[in-house]
Backbone:
RNA sequence: UCCUGAGUAGCUCAGUUGGUUAGAGCAUUUGACUGUUAAUCAAAGGGUCCGGGGUUCAAGUCCCUGCUCAGGAGCCA
């Protein structure tokens, strides 16, 4: 007979007793054991300073020759950048230590000695760093951005979970292009032919919203566009709420409330990280709500009042067209010019029907525009949110599907949503990396996701 | 896909009008040092000047071409 093994097991130390650097202040005066990696080491003869990194923070470990065995001191002198170690010692307050506390080391053991760590404490080029992304994540700046990323995502989930929304995941494999415009990644799907990686979970969210009332999907989106800019990724994360009985006004208000919540959450929970990133906090503190709103037509009027032309590329040459013609989409130069006057994000709504997707609701008062909105961020953050009220009229939707030359059989289920209890409904998509880029002040969107996927990069 | 720019030591860069054996800082190795903050000081090792072709007495440097990368346009979140 086998005795239940839980009775024999004596727990000496649980994982809950492990000490991490971010909690060091709680252990002042006590002996603790820390595990981590050597961030840098500075020697001064019989006195060695090991800067230890454990993922939660950094701590200076002081190793004085007279206080440790000869073997431990020799080991300490042999340490190289990013070697993994275990240290024991007393936590003492010291003004000269980064972080205010240091470890008066009594013992130090090496897990593994690292050799020739590529990322030295000096400047490096973009290409080199991104090739070493798996190691670059250990650097203080990248580490701080990733912690902000985790907080942004938590803020998003808390916001929706606490206001009556249900998380409903949309599929990644789809039979068609959701919006019919973007280039998609394709893959073979058994005997059913070609499948595509989803560029948006929206259409499915519309179905789940009709089941649950208010939903959000949160997952990766894939775009095979050959975009080569500092704000595009081929794989990025997007949160897409979808709400029954919401009109475009409600939609914009929700996007605004979500944005304010995220920024305030990061301000409350990531002070240290924003400091590491040298982010101007006052710019974030200004995000309080009451975002300016402007119709597309008003925005065109503003362009022309301020002599901002349409810039287009014709036969390999940049040409400027003025006045800005109604009906053309804004590009980066127009958006940045417009946003210079605002310190908060701004909504632009009621876009021309021709330049927007087939599922957007036509404005009954003016069929030349659809009830779509973009939320542009300040500080050249670009488009953070794009959304719309959805077309809820069966005939108009079918007309648009035909006009876009989309396969009606693929969209039959989508049309069904307008046959069985169609309701006014709205939703939007928020690009998580764009938001993180804005909040952290990162130079490039590739710094806002652990392993960015870009047109010329899939490793690491 | 188009436009613009870049490629020299492990990394970041300098290299004059084309001229003899291509340099610096950091990193690495060795030595000195009891309070360092990107420690300092001394010494050592480290090069397919992106590949190919051309001009020239002579090419890292000039020309052509290919490759790689970056930024921007378009597209978008």
Residues:
């Amino acid at each position: 007979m086998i005795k239940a093994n839980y009775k024999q097991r004596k727990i000496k130390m649980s994982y809950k007793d492990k000490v991490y650097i971010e909690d060091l202040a709680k252990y002042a005066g006590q002996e603790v054991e820390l595990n981590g990696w050597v961030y840098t080491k500075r020697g001064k003869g019989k006195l060695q300073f090991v800067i230890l990194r454990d993922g939660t923070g950094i701590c200076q470990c002081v190793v004085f020759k007279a206080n440790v065995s000869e073997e431990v001191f020799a080991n300490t002198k042999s340490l190289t950048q990013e070697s993994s170690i275990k240290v024991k010692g007393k936590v003492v307050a010291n003004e000269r230590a980064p972080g205010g506390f240091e470890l008066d080391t009594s013992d130090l053991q090496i897990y593994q000695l690292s050799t020739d760590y590529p990322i030295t404490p000096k400047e490096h080029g973009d290409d080199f760093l991104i090739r070493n992304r798996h190691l670059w994540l250990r650097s203080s700046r990248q580490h701080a951005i990733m912690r902000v990323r985790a907080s942004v995502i938590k803020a998003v989930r808390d916001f929706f979970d606490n206001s009556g929304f249900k998380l409903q995941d949309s599929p990644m494999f789809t039979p068609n292009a959701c919006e019919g415009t973007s280039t998609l990644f394709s893959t073979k799907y058994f005997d059913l032919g070609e499948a595509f990686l989803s560029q948006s979970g929206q259409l499915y969210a519309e179905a789940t919203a009709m089941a649950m009332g208010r939903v959000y999907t949160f997952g990766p989106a894939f775009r095979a566009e050959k975009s080569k800019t500092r704000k595009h990724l081929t794989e990025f994360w997007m949160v897409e709420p979808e709400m029954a009985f919401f009109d475009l006004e409600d939609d914009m208000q929700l996007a605004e409330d979500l944005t304010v919540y995220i920024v305030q959450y990061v301000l409350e929970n990531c002070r240290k990280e924003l400091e590491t990133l040298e982010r101007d906090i006052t710019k974030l503190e200004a995000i309080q709500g009451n975002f300016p709103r402007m119709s597309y037509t008003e925005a065109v009027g503003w362009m022309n009042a301020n002599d901002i032309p349409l810039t287009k590329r014709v036969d390999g040459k940049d040409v400027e067209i003025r006045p800005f013609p109604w009906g053309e989409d804004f590009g980066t130069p127009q958006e940045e010019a417009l946003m210079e006057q605002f310190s908060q994000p701004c909504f632009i709504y009621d876009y021309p029907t021709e330049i927007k997707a087939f599922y957007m609701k036509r404005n009954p008062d003016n069929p030349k525009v659809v009830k779509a909105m973009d939320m542009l961020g300040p500080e050249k953050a670009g488009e953070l949110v794009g959304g719309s009220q959805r077309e809820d009229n069966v005939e108009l939707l079918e007309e648009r599907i035909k006009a876009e030359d989309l396969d009606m059989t693929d969209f039959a289920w989508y049309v069904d949503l307008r046959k069985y209890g169609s309701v006014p409904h709205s939703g939007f998509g928020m690009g998580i990396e764009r938001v993180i880029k804005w909040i952290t002040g990162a130079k490039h969107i590739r710094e806002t996701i652990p392993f960015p996927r870009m047109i010329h990069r899939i490793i690491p």
In short: Chain A has a mean pLDDT of 90. The first strand of chain A starts at residue 31 and ends at 44. The longest helix of chain A spans residues 140-161. Residues 65 and 74 of chain A are 9 Å apart (CA to CA).
